[in-house]
Task: structure prediction
Amino acid sequence: MTTIEYVQVSFEAITSNKLRSTLTTLGVTIGTTAIVLLISISTGASREVTKLVEGLGSNLYLVTPTRPKAAALTGVATVSRLQAQDADLLQKETALRVVVSPVLNNPAPVRYAREVKSGVMVSGALPNFQDARNWHVVQGTFIKKHDGDLARRVVVLGQTVHTGFFKDGDSVGKEITIAGEKFKVIGVMEAKGQLFDIDLDNQVFIPLSTAQRLFGTTALSYIVVGVATADDVPAAMAEAKRILSKRMTPDQFEVRSQGETLQTVQSISLIFTAMLGSVAGVSLLVGGIGIMNIMIVSVTERTREIGLRKALGAREPDVLAQFLSEAILLSFMGGCFGMIFSYLGALGISRAYPTFAVSVSPFAVVLSLGFSVAVGTFFGAYPAYRAAGLDPIEALRHE
Amino acid sequence: MMVRAKDLIKTYRLEGLEVPALRGLSFSVEAGAFIAIMGPSGCGKSTLLNLLGCLDRPTSGTLEIEGVDTSKMNRTDLAILRSRQIGFVFQTFHLLTRATALSNVMLPFVYSDFPKAQRRDRAMKLLRYVGLQDRMRHRPNQMSGGQQQRVAIARSLANDPQLLLADEPTGNLDSRSGLEIMALLERLNREGKTIIMVTHSRELAEHADRIVHLLDGVVLRDEVVAERRSATAQLGEQLA
Result:
């Protein structure tokens, strides 16, 4: 008997009981779907994280005020202890070559002509922000020192705001209204893209002094510190902790590098991977047991057929191969259904989160189809072995 | 000599007890013979047929089929022997219900080295031979019992074996269909096939040229049929 004949015979057997076969493949379908989505999502996530690190720069760290847990839950903003003098202190006392740039963030409505965008992040920044954050203007200029000294009402637009208001791309020199005050556009920032759900480009920059007046606070949202090289970041962070501890208790501020953010994101994605991985594992196991169960039923139902085939000259390996190929085909079909579902799933996720590009990788497809074949082989082995071992006389007499 | 059985002993173990089914049975069948095996239940008919069909091995004794001793063969060699040299006809037909007559007849090819390109033609030829040229695409449930048994006979001829083993071939058929099957077996015998048939019916046994009577696992009597019945002739009378 050739392989093709085995597949044909198996296919006939499987399709002769469509509902049962479909239900049997369900476990493998779920399992392989989970594997493909798992790989697709985690590669998508790691791509996002890589983009994030590249975007934010690995040679910088952030100083943020500690957010009390209660505030994090309720969303009520608390008064930040972080002040401009902390930034000054950091810059003055450092032994390393660093660029210390304090930032004051506040969401506010922004208007141009009749169009209003609410929830735009308005960031009060210093001229050195570009270097510290490694984020530069593509049009016009960034905030200059005298803009800050005079607390001028000038603004540099993020790409989303820029393209949202100015369809013709010509924004420099125009006037927009931020929190009720008129600001002159002096530049446009390069695109930074999105980070999961946060659009980094939906942001505008105004002089820090202007922001302090506009929002009536001197408290900083964060201080971004640019370090010469990524290797210096740990040392610089240790230094920052030491310096800032002179003014604040250690529980009032946090010093975080992108590496740590990366670790956080990675640990989240690891949890996610573990979760989907166990779903995949459990469904494949259950699916495999389901296949084994149905194959045992099938062998019992077809005992007479097995007896007949043996009487007609089928050797034990023939019968073994026939039932094994049936189990493998059944499982493989489950795998194929899984590919369809995971493709739809990936499509659905991509639709729901456009920034989160989930694509089904060929590697994932090959891997999970391989898994489905392995499951079929493993769980089909015992029923096939049982079929092959049947005594032809007994089998023919079976009712 | 087609079959030569010498001192065949077969014992089964049932719940620790040794149950003898054959107790030193000897007999032989010449090539081209038509033998009927008769005997009451438990006389060892089925056991003998299973041994002749190489579905089982004797506990002791020798069994030669076409000059080859099968009593010491392993299961794989027995399977090969079955596919090449023996054709089975069962009381309950044993057709694959979801396959057509043609597919059923082609089933044995799967386990022999019969050339692929010729399988379909050979199967169609055999179905025509048994008179089912109009039923090739029918499934068993679309056919009468007699037709089903004819498909089974065509299947038994697939690999052109010299020995046909028939176990109560007409047991599930009405008398008319049974007679037609007997006529078919007679024709096959005339054309050179050796046939060994197990039956309960004296009347059917008289279609053979020899009746082997079994009792308690040995040959009680080996009877040459003086006046053979002819199913072909009987069918002719019925028609007339």
Summary: Residues 3-239 of chain B form a domain with the Rossmann fold fold (CATH 3.40.50.300). The longest helix of chain B spans residues 175-190. The mean pLDDT of chain B is 93.
